[in-house]
Structures are given as structure tokens and as C-alpha cells.
Amino acid sequence: MRRAVCPGSFDPVTNGHLDIVGRAAALFDEVVVAVGVNKSKSSSRMFTPEERMDMLRRACEPWPNVSVRGFTGLLTDFCAEHGIQAIVKGLRAVSDFDYELQMAQMNASLTDVETVFVPTSPEWSFLASSLVKEVATYGGDVSSLVPGFVHEQLVARVAERGTGA
Ligand code: PNS
User: Which phi and psi (to 5°) does residue 36 adopt?
Assistant: First the structure.
């Protein structure tokens, strides 16, 4: 059984994330989408971990071999606990590579987990959850960048919070 993890913050899940998850689902027998709590970004979260996981579960329904879990602590510990041999990461551009390589090498130094880089499809290469949130906060149209139900929740959250301007 070849099992991989697609880790991330997913705040919120975008079409770019789903591009990578779907391609990982075609490469591996099982894929776990792991929603991490990255303390350095926690102040800029728009959605709670439960909200992010609910959105991901719905978005990943097309792939029967994909499940969604939350995790805290080290990703390598999560991999060991769940019998995961590979970490799948999307690379949007060269600018992603430095940090992703560093994380892959750090994770490899901690355990024997392999990191597999998948090039993001060109149509999503500019896409980042942080930009989606920023554009949505100022009323921009991001409806083509996230699943429809995610867009609805994004618009509702922005309406609750306001732009802060
Ligand atoms: O979507 P993000 O914010 O880029 O996801 C980052 C994430 C959650 C994948 C990363 O921060 C992570 O792996 N966190 C778990 C803690 C850990 O293992 N840190 C060491 C990384 S070498």
C-alpha cells in the first residue's frame, strides 16, 4: 500500500491545492490531506481548523482514496503514526523551491519519509490562499479560484469581518 500525505494550512482550500491532491490520488493508493496548525501563521487565519477540514472533505469527495485529518506537531511524526511513506508538495514557481527543498531535507533528516514535488498546473501557478483572502477581503472576484461552496463561505466570512479598512 503506497500512502502519501498532502500537508498544508488550507485557509481556505483553493483549486491549486485540489489540482495537487487529485494528481497525488492518481499516483498513490491512499492520500491523507493533513491540515496543519502552523503557529507562525495562526494570527492570519480566516477559518478554524474544523471549518478548513469540512471544506476539504467536501472538496475531496471526487476521490475515494483521499481522506482529511488535522495534525499538530511534526509532519514526520504524523507520517510515522499513519504509515505514510511520501509527502507530496506542489511547486508553483522557482520561488517555492528554496523553502520546500529545505523542508524536504529537514524532514528526510528526521525520518526516511520521501518528499515528492509535483509541478502546479500553469493555470494555478499564481494561486495562494493568502492572496485569495486578500482579494476577497477587498471585494475582488475570486470565484474562479476556489470551489463554489468555499467561495460562498469566503464571501460570508468577509461580510462578517469587514475589510478592516
Ligand atoms: O500551507 P502551508 O502553511 O505552507 O503549510 C505548511 C505546513 C503545515 C505543511 C508546514 O508548516 C508543516 O509541515 N508543519 C508541521 C510542523 C513541522 O513538521 N515542521 C518542520 C518542517 S521541516
Answer: -95, 155
